[in-house]
Design brief:
The structure is a homodimer.
Chain A: E1 5-6, H1 12-19, H2 23-31, H3 38-51, H4 57-64, E2 66-67, E3 69-74, H5 80-95, E4 99-104, H6 109-121, E5 126-130, H7 136-144, E6 149-154, E7 162-166, H8 168-181, E8 187-192, H9 198-213, E9 220-224, H10 230-238, E10 249-252, H11 255-267, E11 277-279, E12 296-298, H12 301-316, E13 325-327, E14 331-333
Helix pairs in contact in A: 1-2, 1-3, 5-12, 8-9, 10-11
The structure holds a DNA duplex (16 and 16 nucleotides).
Chain lengths: ~350, ~350
DNA sequence: CTGAAAGCGCTTACAG
DNA sequence: CTGAAAGCGCTTACAG
């Protein structure tokens, strides 16, 4: 593990020497410049500029036993579902001087456990991660942390400490209600990765529960286990080609899968929604621009990011937030595909 | 700025006390467990487990004047152009114990300058950022850094130290060549944000240069200045509706814009590519699934991420890399839209 | 195989 | 308005 590298930027001592003052005074220059005489301040400013000096945050944090890092654990950063949250959250938190450090678990709970060690080694001021399913050992550890833990995306069960997101069950049920009211009765399911993507699995459960309530069930399913992408959607679709004629609507585990499903159906000359309807989940940026435009649930990711940031700012500044749980809701986008 | 928060995780001293050893021995437990007696090792392991102790990386880095953070500056994380790079890079770098810290400049060069201070305060082991246009002051500062600076995405000009990416000019020229060879002669341009997105601006220049060589030029342009998204593409398109009949192909500054352009044309009953052809740039994940599927340039982002990581690992482990500049190339995807 | 001393780069608390 | 001392949590280099 000789993977470390030395970084030799000037330190406060060097700046102090050049400006003819003590280290302490350099420190004051950054935290309380008003306390310095004009002359001193100017000399330090010159030295700082000459060296492009910036105080070492590691040292600051260490000395103050504080941290200005917020750790964010997500399954992946290549899915805009998480990126939209990260982006908004970072913007808000950076305004108040915090830095967001993102780590990806790759939808792997074992890796999540391991990453938690890595993350804690940075002594973050707070931890944000998708709720609410974790290994029991992780859950226990999270519970014992003295820093704020915010679980995002999923409010289906009780958060460890704080939660921001929406209820996957309720959202999927709203989508099902829409389809039922439009007269669709013969449902098929196309999805992937349900063993790892717990939120997708919950949505499928919610859909099944809805159908059961209405005296039916999924008449056909195709579930793969290799991540979400349009291409995987096409593969999954190919796997249930024969059963398509018995269905009038396809529930996809998310918009990525639905995208591939639409492509597959288009390539096979099957009209959507004429012969079969299709719905996704998430409302990605391009979902309105598919042909036909995709009916889906918008999960308000920017709001999740913003509310999480707001919650964290309260917590980190020592204010007790009004609510432990913030439901950011969702919105049904009924477009052309169903 | 009382935005800091204390994190009270146990320290090595507490672990040492519980295990009945010195701090030093705890330190050895993590770096050289073989040096310890079985009994000592076991007692420390128990204490570590009891406290969920993880060494404080800030303190380690400070003591060793090292850093295991790689700083990555990108214009935005909501664009998969950068996310794909980040993702691959992180995976590779984490394998060798480095952590990638991502910061967004929001396509703002002033903010980039400011962010550089923030980033340097973490004393990163290396800096990665999109090349190669920066404020002169930034460029000067980057040049003076003793840590590796890798510029990614764009190899159009000479990098400060190291470069990984492709030549925007060459890639756009290849796209133009394809269109010309297919017989398109009346070109229009639809884009946005060219003052900020320097790479997009370079592509437009390359396209203009190509047309000039062939004795023509853009017969119509619509350029907005509000970021890239399908919706912006639709707006831009609306702005040149009247001129469409004089054109046979539309060059879009990227796939996001092209997506909106396709939607606009579809909504107005204009056939693509029958009445007018459309091309984008980047090959986003859904571009093959638009209707018609989008002809574009794939920019091999995962390769850029992987090669950058490989380069960094060499540099950070003190090996001189074979090449200062790595051209990851590009690939033309000639699909249905042109 | 294990430990006491010193120091990484800062800042707090005290002193003047 | 400015500075000397002490310590945040580690690890290196030395000693035994």
């Amino acid at each position: 593990m000789s993977t470390k590298n030395s970084t030799k930027l000037k330190n406060a001592k060097a700046v102090a020497e050049r400006a003819g003052v003590s280290e302490m005074t350099v420190s004051r220059f950054f935290r309380n410049p008003d306390l310095l005489s004009d002359d001193t301040r100017q000399r330090i400013a010159d030295a700082v500029a000459a060296f492009n000096y910036v105080p070492n945050r590691m040292a600051q944090n260490l000395r103050n036993t504080t941290s200005d890092i917020c750790a964010l654990l997500v399954p992946t950063v290549t899915n805009s579902v998480f990126v939209d949250v990260i982006s908004e959250m970072s913007i808000e938190l950076e305004k108040v001087g915090f830095h967001v450090m993102v780590s990806s678990t790759g939808y792997d709970m074992e890796k999540e456990a391991q990453l938690l060690d890595t993350v804690m080694s940075f002594r973050p001021a707070a931890i944000v991660m998708p709720g609410l399913e974790h290994l029991p050992a992780i859950k226990e550890r999270l519970r014992e942390l003295t820093i704020p833990v915010v679980e995002i995306m999923d409010l289906t069960s009780e958060p460890i400490a704080y939660g921001v997101g929406f209820d996957q069950h309720v959202a999927q049920a709203a989508l099902m209600e829409h389809l039922w009211s439009k007269g669709y009765r013969k449902y098929g399911f196309v999805g992937t990765f349900l063993d790892h993507d717990i939120r997708a699995a919950k949505r499928k459960d919610a859909a099944s529960a809805f159908l059961k309530c209405h005296g039916t069930k999924f008449l056909a399913e195709s579930v793969l286990d290799i991540g979400s992408s349009p291409e995987v959607g096409m593969c999954a679709m190919a796997g249930m080609f024969e059963q398509l004629e018995h269905l009038d609507v396809l529930i996809c585990s998310n918009d990525d899968i639905a995208t591939g499903v639409l492509t597959f159906l288009h390539e096979h000359g099957i009209d959507v929604p004429g012969q079969i309807a299709v719905v996704g989940f998430n409302n990605l940026h391009f979902s309105a621009h598919l042909t036909p435009s995709l009916t889906t649930i918008d999960t308000r990711r920017p709001q999740i990011g913003r509310e999480t940031a707001r919650l964290l700012v309260d917590l980190l500044q020592g204010r007790e937030p009004k609510n432990r749980i913030i439901d950011t809701g969702f919105e049904l986008f009924a477009r052309d595909s169903a």
